[in-house]
Amino acid sequence: MNQSELYLMMTVTGRGRMPDFIRLYRDKGLEIHTLSLGHGTAEAQYLRYLALDETEKMICMTVVTGRKWLEVRKAMTVRLHIEAPGVGIAWVVPLSSVGGRREFMFLTEGQGFEKGAESSLKSTEQEMLIVIGNQGYSEQIMDAARKAGCRGGTVIHARGTGQEKAEQFLGISLASEKDIILIVALTEHKNAIMQEIIREAGPGTRAGAIVFSVPVTDTAGMTLRPQSEELEDAPAAPAEGDIPTE
Predict the structure, then answer these.
(1) Position 79 pLDDT exceeds 90
(2) Is residue 50 domain-shared with residue 137, that is, in the same domain?
(3) Three-state secondary structure string covering the chain
(4) Strand order of the sheet with strand 56-65?
(5) Are 137 and 165 part of one and the same domain?
(6) Per the domain annotation, does 236 fall within a domain?
(7) CA atoms of 55 and 41, how far apart (whole Å)
C-alpha cells in the first residue's frame, strides 16, 4: 500500500456497533462520512458460527490516505477488536480522482494530502463515479451526468456527517439526508461527466453534490461504448468462402 495515495474506506458492521466505529474515526480526525443501511445475507447457521447477532448492517464510506488507513486499522484492532468474529469488516479501494478543488480539500481535510484535484491517481479503462448529493436531487444529478454522455446510475439513500466542515470548505450548509449515485463510465468520459455534475448539481446548487471515482478492473452485462464504436473496434469478419487461419 502507498501511504501517500488516497483510498475509499468501506466499513460494514451491525447497526448497534457503528457508533463505536464513528467515534474511533472522529478521534483519528475523520469526520466526513456517509452512512447507509444494509442487510446481511449469510445463513443463520453461518451467522451463529461467526457470532454475528445482527443481520441489519450499516455501511460507512470515508476517504482516507494510505497513512491514515494504517493508523485507523491499528486502532480498530486494539480498541474495537475488529479481528474478533462478529465485530465488522473494513477495507480500502484506491481512488482515481476527485472532482473540484474545494471538494477535494473537504474530503481530505486534516490528512495532509497534497495532490491536486481531478488528477489521475489510478488508471483503468472504466471507473465508478460515486456522487454524494442531498436527498431528493438524484434526478438533477443524473440529468447533468446525461448531458456528458452518462446512460444511467444506481441510487442509494444514506446519511452524511461533517456539515460544519462543509460550511468551512464549500461555503454551504449540507442536508444530513443523502443520495449516493453510483455510475460506471469509460475513463475517457469520466472527467466530462464529473465536471458537468459539479457545474449543474455541485456545491452552490440545491443538490450540493460532490463526486469522486474509483478504478474498475472489468465489467460484465453493460455496454459502455456506443454500438458504432464497438463495431469499429471489432475484428473484420472473414469474407464468404475464406478459411479462418490461426
Answers:
(1) yes
(2) no
(3) CCCCCEEEEEEEEECCCHHHHHHHHHHCCCCCCEEEEEECCCCHHHHHHHCCCCCEEEEEEEEEEHHHHHHHHHHHHHHCCCCCCCCCEEEEEECCEECCHHHHHHHHCCCCCCCCCCCCCCCCCEEEEEEEEECCCHHHHHHHHHHCCCCCCEEEEEEECCHHHHHHHHCCCCCCEEEEEEEEEEHHHHHHHHHHHHHHHCECECCCCEEEEEEECCCCCCCCCCHHHHHHHCCCCCCCCCCCCC
(4) 89-94, 6-14, 56-65, 34-39, 154-160, 177-186, 126-134, 210-216, 97-98
(5) yes
(6) no
(7) 7
Q: Can you give the CATH number for the domain in which 203 is found?
A: 3.30.70.120
Q: Is residue 225 part of a domain?
A: no
87 domain-assigned: yes
Give the residue-averaged pLDDT of 121-148: 88
Domain end, chosen from 94, 111, 141, is at: 94
In the numeric block, which cell numbers belong to residue 31?
469526520
Output the pLDDT for position 117.
46
Last residue of a domain, one of 46, 75, 94: 94
Note whether residue 227 is domain-resident: no
Tens digit of pLDDT for each residue in 35-47?
A: 888 765 545 555 4
Residues 33 and 134 in one domain: no
Angle at 131 between CA 206 and CA 147, to 5 degrees: 75
Q: How confident is residue 74, by pLDDT bands cut at 50, 70 and 90?
A: very high
Q: What is the pTM of this model?
A: 0.71
**Tens of pLDDT, residues 175-205:** 578 899 999 999 899 999 999 999 999 988 9
